[in-house]
Amino acid sequence: MFVKRSVTHSIAQALIAIVLLSLLSTGLALITLFSSLRDAEVINLAGSLRMQSYRLAWDAAHEPQQLVSHLAQYQQTLDAPALKNLNRFWTPRDVFKYYRHLRRAWPQLQHNLQQGEAHRYQQQVAVYVSEIDRFVLGLQRYAELKMHLVVASSLLGLIAIVALTLLTIRFTRQQVVRPLNALVTASRYIENGNFAFPPLVVAQENELQMLSQTFSKMAMRLQLHYQLLESTVREKTEALTEANRTLSLLYESSQMLTASPLHPTLFESVLANVLTHEDLAAIRLESDHFLFCAGTGHPSLTWQRVPLRQDDRLTGELRWQANHDEPPEALMHSLAAILGRALWIWQTQKQYQQMLLIEERATIARELHDSLAQALAFLRIQLTLLRRTVDQADSAAQFIIADVDRALSDAYRQLRELLATFRLSIEQADLVAAMQAMIASLQEQADARISFHYQSGLQNLDAQQQVHVLQIAREALLNAIRHANAQEIQIAYQRTSEGEHVLTISDDGVGIASSDEPPGHYGLTTMAERAARLAGSLSISVQAQGTQIALRFPPHPGRPLE
User: Residue 314 belongs to a domain with what CATH number?
Assistant: First the structure.
């Protein structure tokens, strides 16, 4: 920046001016005093001329012998160098004119004295002395004038020096002290972290203006850096707070999923916690085999999605609708990973439980086949041998043999059905696939059309529940096929708003006369027992055409409906 009026230069000029004024006034006074050194001598000489003029008049009248020496002395006084030096340019013209007039008039007076014309000298001496008086008075006034000049110059110099000093002080206060005080105030503002200090205004283009502008720019840059730092710290704090909130939610979700055995209500509790924590409108965890949800979706809101993957395989989808701000993407991805892993563990546990149950039932089936089935087969062979041995004419024996044969046939048929029931498996812990496989196998044995309709939630049953539901559905289908002569059979599953499971098997057959089973048949009793193990109920109702069997049970055995 170019400095037009330097503060140091201005102060230096003021100090130089003060010094010059001091030198000028002092020099003028000294010169005046120096020129006044011989003023007393000049006045004394001029005054002596008056005395000598009168003395010459006395000598001419009374002491002529002194006249010559006194004339020489008078002439010496009149020609004194001090009087001749009055012919200077600074000497007033009137003073030198009086002196010159005295010198011009003296020769005539001297001639009168030398010729002995004392009376004529005495007539002219009064006029001559008056001229001397005027000369002395002029010298006196000239001396007084020089004293007045010394006083005036000293006074004017003092006034000028004081005025210039005050102007310098005022200039220093305005151009130096005030800007420096403003800079000190601004530095204290900045020291306290406040960049809104009073503006630094310096009118003159000097070093302090440049310093003030540089300080203001520096403060502005510091404020920008400070604001940037505050913004960065605030963003980092918000990010840490958000990360802490996210970690807390993930930790709570993980704790909820690991604190108790996995079940559908637990997944729904986790979703409800996320719904409340993130202020979501709705959140769902769904796939082809399950659906867990919390909240109610709105048509005006957009569904956001995150896929659930396990070993690079798509297993489901996490969907949500946000009321206001979208939850962090990292949170939802991490939550999807946790839920996907928990679902995989849950499915694996269900498969493991199912495999244990299947293995146990297969063991029972092998034991029944190796023991009871072999015994029944042996009895049927022995009964055939007995029929051949007994006389055909013995009707009573043949009647008993026929009854035993029928009983053995019924027992053997029931054993085969029991073995088929025990060997019925649910692959991949998927009840829907098991139901479809069971329906397909029975469809080959019947002319009736069998349809299966279901809502989501059937896959959420545990292994024991799945086996009981599958066996009840199979028994109801067998009864409709064998006894009702139905042409169309419908199996439907739905889940109520309270979470209750409802499975209905409807047919258009001849109906059922009574819910009491005939001797030797235990299908309805077994179905009722299985419903009780599900903590549910089994109802049989006769419709206008056909029969409907309805199974109702809560989400978890032994727990009340929510």
Answer: 3.30.450.40
